[in-house]
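Students often ask why we bother predicting the structure of a whole assembly rather than each chain alone. The short answer is interfaces. A chain on its own may look different once its partners are present, and contacts between molecules only exist in the joint model. In this exercise we take four input lines together and write out one structure for the complete complex. Read the inputs first and try to guess which parts will touch.
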Amino acid sequence: MTATTAKAAVMTAFNQAIRVQEYPLPDRLAEGEVLVRVTLAGMCGTDVHLHKGQLAVPLPLIMGHETVGVVEGVSGAASDWLGTPLKKGDRVSWTVGRPCGECRYCRLYRLPSRCSNRKAYGVNTPCDQAPHFLGGYGQYHHLRAGTAIFKLADDLPSEAVIGAGCALVTGVHGYEKMPLRWAESVVIQGAGPVGLAALAIAADAGARPLIVIGGPKDRLERCKRFGADVVIDIDEVKDPDKRRGIVLEHTGGLGADVVVECVGHPAAVAEGWLLNRDGGRYMVLGQYCDAGPIPLNPHYITKKELEIHGSYGSEPHHWAKALEFLRARRDRYPFHELITHRFALEQVNEALEAVASWRTGKAVICPNG
Amino acid sequence: MTATTAKAAVMTAFNQAIRVQEYPLPDRLAEGEVLVRVTLAGMCGTDVHLHKGQLAVPLPLIMGHETVGVVEGVSGAASDWLGTPLKKGDRVSWTVGRPCGECRYCRLYRLPSRCSNRKAYGVNTPCDQAPHFLGGYGQYHHLRAGTAIFKLADDLPSEAVIGAGCALVTGVHGYEKMPLRWAESVVIQGAGPVGLAALAIAADAGARPLIVIGGPKDRLERCKRFGADVVIDIDEVKDPDKRRGIVLEHTGGLGADVVVECVGHPAAVAEGWLLNRDGGRYMVLGQYCDAGPIPLNPHYITKKELEIHGSYGSEPHHWAKALEFLRARRDRYPFHELITHRFALEQVNEALEAVASWRTGKAVICPNG
Amino acid sequence: MTATTAKAAVMTAFNQAIRVQEYPLPDRLAEGEVLVRVTLAGMCGTDVHLHKGQLAVPLPLIMGHETVGVVEGVSGAASDWLGTPLKKGDRVSWTVGRPCGECRYCRLYRLPSRCSNRKAYGVNTPCDQAPHFLGGYGQYHHLRAGTAIFKLADDLPSEAVIGAGCALVTGVHGYEKMPLRWAESVVIQGAGPVGLAALAIAADAGARPLIVIGGPKDRLERCKRFGADVVIDIDEVKDPDKRRGIVLEHTGGLGADVVVECVGHPAAVAEGWLLNRDGGRYMVLGQYCDAGPIPLNPHYITKKELEIHGSYGSEPHHWAKALEFLRARRDRYPFHELITHRFALEQVNEALEAVASWRTGKAVICPNG
Amino acid sequence: MTATTAKAAVMTAFNQAIRVQEYPLPDRLAEGEVLVRVTLAGMCGTDVHLHKGQLAVPLPLIMGHETVGVVEGVSGAASDWLGTPLKKGDRVSWTVGRPCGECRYCRLYRLPSRCSNRKAYGVNTPCDQAPHFLGGYGQYHHLRAGTAIFKLADDLPSEAVIGAGCALVTGVHGYEKMPLRWAESVVIQGAGPVGLAALAIAADAGARPLIVIGGPKDRLERCKRFGADVVIDIDEVKDPDKRRGIVLEHTGGLGADVVVECVGHPAAVAEGWLLNRDGGRYMVLGQYCDAGPIPLNPHYITKKELEIHGSYGSEPHHWAKALEFLRARRDRYPFHELITHRFALEQVNEALEAVASWRTGKAVICPNG
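Now the answer. The structure tokens for the assembled complex follow.
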């Protein structure tokens, strides 16, 4: 490491312009630490929410929680999460969330995604103190000991990792909680990143028919390419009863075996319960933000004998599975083609605006050009 | 059969007095049919709803869907659901719901509780045409071919069967859908018949601690006798936050592994989701009536990674399991002691009034005195 | 129906030539009965075993338990298992096994595949008495009331149904008992009909990598076409340790998540347990015949924490699923191309010989030319 | 700590007398380490095997893997596995196995019981180097950082912890892998420590009837006291067919829903598969030692549609569950009464002999008198 300082895009206040600043790079790495030179840092819709102050995160903050980079330095004998030794020059990605490993959720309930003390790079890791570089929107990223790092296979493009982003592992975790059985009918509510990920996995798991409800048109086109048998455009079919009618038509008149909510807006849940056949399974995968209570009828749960699952965040083994999926199935599910916009570090504000206005497919920051 | 007619309590209009009428008894039984002389007919809260016209049922109707009687006549070689031959004098009970066995729910989805053409004795079986006697509130009950009849073991009191009523099979079905694992912490919401049944099964399955939220006091006392470790009286602890506080106190501070809603009022569901620890399981067992939508926050499903199950009605194998439970565990869970009021056939209106005003434990009609 | 008699190939003694005989056709059909003109009758390896007297079946017998035909006559308002009305001219297939619906396996345990009184067309349905035509190797097939009949979709070739045969429903049932999770590594032991079916479903369910151990070469080629990533030729790699070495090489060094035995020879089970990683799942799908005990080490079950499943026969809903799979995925899994030999009714003995000597892909009898 | 050395019983060669030696106590504890003064050290049948050299363990060794003691010293802010702070004087026990947390079994497959680098106190932790005290048969026990320590509740007797020993957590783990459903019929093969533990959990989980096959008589008496409905004495009923007959008699004629092998001798498995009803579940819980292959018929797995599970070792959350069970249910399942023999440290050889000759209930070493 010859450079002694590096640049990062730092959010110092909500709703204000983000500024690029210089921070000193660490002069040495402690046992288990790794320093990475960032290649691609995905911008997620969550970053827009963070910038608007809609989640309580500490400032100043270097955002960016979907990152690929190249190992610049390791301390001692480091290896990736699956045991592959790491060395300078290796292309890597990593899990953003770091559970404490000691609370009751981590230990007793084996639910580290609900760890009481969870740290997430780019989300609740303020940058005012060394090692500063704890988010993706910087030239470097410092990885603390214990981070689950994954060396990327040569035939796995960095663009696929960032194109899939944190949405894919969210889907992998969700389907671990509520496994698809072979040849079930599946409705995906939502055509955004999580919807597309949930769709790709369902397609790969043999879902049939596979129906997407969402928009806009270009996203639905992409859904078709990723395996949707039927797409229902909410801009065209505005009446939920009509949308339900289309679902019934393709599922033998009774509704789908499985419905996966990937919308984020709570009203989708009310619509979704009626898309299931009785005895069907419903997954609430998109309600990450607390939008408060909405009218829902619990009578349907009893009467329709529904099974409903929630899933939050992800664990390292979901990343392992996601990365291998991206590699092995890149022809069938070309996540690497989703990146539509590339921005320099200095263009972070421009990038946030573009993502906020839904003008982009996947937007990425390239902090090193 | 020497009698040629018999009496039954017939509902001819909602909210009107029920009158005892005579109907001719069948002069012969077709293949597979059984005629039973009714001993005890339980009165269920649902009968009150039926009488108020809150469910769309056909009239005139002989209500009564929890019945024990003695075989008066069988046609040919009849046997009970488990293969025991039936003969005159056998004490029997039977499943009330008769699925069609031919619709997609019966066949493809193996979910006969959601049969599209389900018939239920005492509920949607009008009595104006022969064989008339299709509900429990009559001196006789006619059982159509294919009814799942159970010969009662000698050491199983009829009072236990009626004391448990349809609430117990509801619970057996629910826990089949969402099995309890050994030694989980369980909260039962509701101390009525379904709550008590859900409690008894949970106690028998090793739940620990086992907490009941409900009232009034005498029901909570009964819950303690049936195995509750902690009871929370809603008349005393009126603040849901305080009730939650008590649950947390007994579940390591994070909430219960399992919560079972047996209240019927939809607001219980909103309270219930917050009684679960993250990653917990919730069963909506009591929402049989459609009380319309209420405010619920689906964000909790995602964030708390809840698993939610609904269950409706029951199948014959649940009855088999319930009857054997009542027999084998009658000392530990004395359902036979729940009957507090016995009424003659002519006192049906009086009985309905008593049940409606919550003045009874379990009320039964004894049509033959 | 103008014909009054029809021909069938009748086995009157084991190991003797089968002769074509005439039997009277029924002059009327009772309620629920259907008469079918047979188009294609698949010959299964089991038929060879039956002919050799290796299973205790009653004689005289019209064999044939994989059949497609055209409805010639129905009595009254008949409909197929999924409710579609049946009429003369409809192309149909049906489930061969008919459980009694009354024994404890049918009722209490909901395991009709283990029905104590199960009848199977072409297996334990002697033909000496009317309606005679109870197997596939005849010009007509009589279907008793209650048979699960399936009207075939227009875009589902009869050849696909027979090409898949009873092997496919065996696989569908097996994976219902032991569901595949998405993206697991799977080893299929055996490249025969059951192995190919198990492979096709695993491929469709997203198994990766998907490894087949078997032979001969042409069958392995077909496995590749149906989605196998790796094939191990037992004629080339004769040492089980070497076969295991290849499996480990493709599964990260520890063994496969899932291994499915489709060989029939018991020794495959001993080899198979060592192909699983610890904590893996093993399915014994092929041990239909009782070849007696073999040396197996139960220590591996404890130490490797294996999960082992057996599955036998099938139920109507497996047929529904299988037929829809054949229809929807016929491009990806061309079961209709498996038929290599067609024989006239009079050539049944020739056909048996060809199948016994493994000279055929799938052999079919075409009783009506 | 005033003492600078302490005594331990050291095995320096297999099949030789074990000698008591002195080793220096650590003069300081590193971060996370705990020093415990041993109160009770259970002697397990495995120790007899170890002493006979039947498992490849490193020497010299202080055996003892079931231990309760009192905290003598902690370094810094130590807390037990569930977060309770630890201080001098606390009564504690701990999990013996320490998985590496880094191999594929620990990480990818979340199966730490199959960790490739697992260390187990008293089994593969030689004592020739500091900190020496890594087994239960010493006056002190050194606990490395990361050991899952459990502070014992005041109302949980140390005798209960040692009386249950490693058998109970073995059972807890087994039933996690193959959960009991409420009110199943269960056969336990074996009346030794693992059998008794498997019986107690099944009783607590509502199994009915609960049948034990084993011996000798006093162990069967204990089984009755712990909840067995039926005991079959193998010394009296020597014919496996007759034993099967008794099981069928108590399970409706078809066999048990669940059979749990806790014998250790492989022949039990062959007998056990025939004790299950078709569609039943079988757990191989006792085959820890490799006794080589035995004749087993895999045809039964297919034909009976069995589900078979293996389980090995345990994890900390099983200990948490086991300890809470011992505490809460000590009246119903009095494991604390199982200790029949107490030996001083100098009597280890005598103790081994007593255990080897089955003369004891539970034998314990009391290294500090």
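Check your guess against this: The CA atoms of residues 113 and 315 of chain A lie 7 Å apart.
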